[in-house]
Give the backbone structure.
Amino acid sequence: MKAILDSSMTQVTDFLTKVRPVSVVRNIQLVLVSLTLLFVTYVLSIPFFGQTRVDTDPDGLFSEGKIAPETIQSAKEFSYEDTEKTNQEKQKAAANVPFAFDKDFGILVAGIDTNLSEDVELLRTILAEGKGSPAIVKDRIPRWRNRTNEEIQAILDYPRKDKLKNFIQQYTNLIFSKYCIVKEDLPFAKDLDKAGAKIRNIGTQDQTYFIDGNLVIPRSQIYKEGPVASVLSKLASEKLPNVSDSLLKAVSRIGLYYVYSYPACSYNAEETENSRLRASSSIPIQKSRIQANEVVVRSGDVITPEVKFKLDMMNRYATRANLASIISIFLTQCVLIMIVGFYLIRYRPKRLNDLSSNLIIFFTLWIVIASIYLLSKIFYATDSDLSGVYYFGMFVPVGMLCLLLGFVYDEQLSIAIGFFLAFAVFFASRYNPTSFMLAFTVAVVSSIYGRRLLKRIDFLKAGFLLTFVQILITTAGYLFDGREFYVSTGSGFFRDLTNSNLFHITVMCFVNGFASATAVQFLLPLYEYVFNIPTRFKLIELADTGHPLLQQLLTKAPSTYTHTFMVAALSERAAQNLNLDRLLVRVGVYFHDIGKIPNAGFFVENQHLIPKPEHIDKNNPALAAKTVIDHVLDGIEMAKKARLPREIISFIPEHHGTSTMAFFYHKALQEISPSARKNINKKDFQYPGPKPQSKETAIVMIADSLEAASRSLDEVSPESLDELIRKIVNSKLAENQLDESGLTIGDLEIIKSSFQEVLLSSLHQRPKYPKPEDTKALEVAGSKKNKK
């Protein structure tokens, strides 16, 4: 059973990690991206698909006056035309329009000034006749008839009769210009005080101006005791300061008579109505909004007319599929996917060129998207008060995805996926900015920390780190939204604390942080087994020398085993100095020569241990070359059966690249005549390749040749090692073996110095230790001498 399972998983791994043309991988990615786009759009568009219609008919369960049998909550945010609100705004706009009045300045000249001149002239005639008494004045001047004798006497006693007319005229002019005196009483006096008045002057250049409503005075208010009379009396005293009180009273009373007799203002009802109609018609149709997740009516509440109206609007708008919103979400997701795709193609072009990596990323992303769907159902459920305490982003396992991708791949890829996911959380949270910041911040932090997961204890640290970050962002959100952290109810500190929002959000942050870290620990072995990815923990397992393949190498090809560990030491030091994955390099070297196991004795390092003629006979260069080439092909096949990761298997062919087996090729050319040499195909003496596709495999290529060549050195010195390293590097460069590895000239210098450091420490000259017999002889000779 185990053999069948291993064979099946080998086939699955080979299928998933098989190197495919880039065009095929791009087509697969296109299908996966399309599925993701549709899935995400569906999840985010659920609130816009509408909801079940509420029966508000007269006999329905939610008709006006009945008790609501269940809580009704709007599934999405929508606006509707609010007729009542529109009418209120129109009425408000109309009420704010000033009342229109016409003021005729011709009355001031034709009426007031003319009559005042006539009356003052009569007064002078009476005085000239020597008949100046209050009774005669009141009899001869009818317009002054209602004045008291005291007031007439004050006028008669005033010696400057030439200024009398000026006093009265100045006072009337002042009232005329400042106030709007109307003939009739105004039934809209209170509204006039609020809206004010628009005065249109007739007979002057200043056509229109605005005044406060309290400056429009019906003439009936002039003589009544009250605020109007007090204001007019005060006005007279301010403008005629040098006049006695008795004369001031007489002048103001006579002046008010002329004003009363000739009111200059008249209410223009037509102009007022037209202005109000224009203001009312300028008001656009008002819309009201029902928020997403808003409770329209709770179970047990009475259906009021206002509630019924909202339910009717919800039936009209919320039960429709909002096509515009769905298209908007779809287009936004397309833009985000293009941004992420461009970023990955630009900065990580080789990262997603195999099926397994794409499946890992998209499968994990689908898990998180599915969790967003399920969590939104719970978080925004009817009667749920979660949104009053928590933020939606606190429940989504963004940290799990980014920790996993950051650990398995790199932080750039993980941040790009986290960026896309943060916007998905933003849309799903009904555009809550704190949820977006939670998702994005957790994505960045977990992506960066994912590359630092070296030990099991680091998962615990990751849980604390994600918890701390979420607490910070949630606290910022609470401060921004003005939410309460802690409210004292008098029930005791411990009870108040456990019931507080502060306690709830802290616990939720801990749950999310540690759940994400724990989920990564659960998914990692599963992904390692199914997709055969070389995580750090997988590489540590493969680095164990107890692995069956390494034990076979030790038993059947012991010198190759020793060679392997020397190459590993060289390669790992160079990788470390170049900040590469030194653990990957070490494990890759451990398995790079496992193909020599079937024919171990054929290879020169093992011939002294397996001295068979067929192993030593190399008189057939073509056959020998084929045997050497076969060790690469055999190694790949053995590695696949052992389910080694593709990244480890790549060390087997790439450490030889397409280099030529110079010894056998030269021997083949040497053994035949010059005319027959053209029949020899050089490709038969070249390794199948490919050339090193990474810096790691290129380092191993150089180290493998160097370790073998270093055994032939007669003298080990910095100079000889430097010369040997340069010779080998130049030979690889001459065959263009490093062209596709990405190594730079600077990298090669670091590699040379790293190799020289390791070789000097391992190939140093040791002193010759004396033989035990010689030491014993010296001891015996010394003891004999002492006896003498």
In short: The chain is about 60% helix and 5% strand. Residues 545 and 551 are 7 Å apart (CA to CA). The radius of gyration is 51 Å.
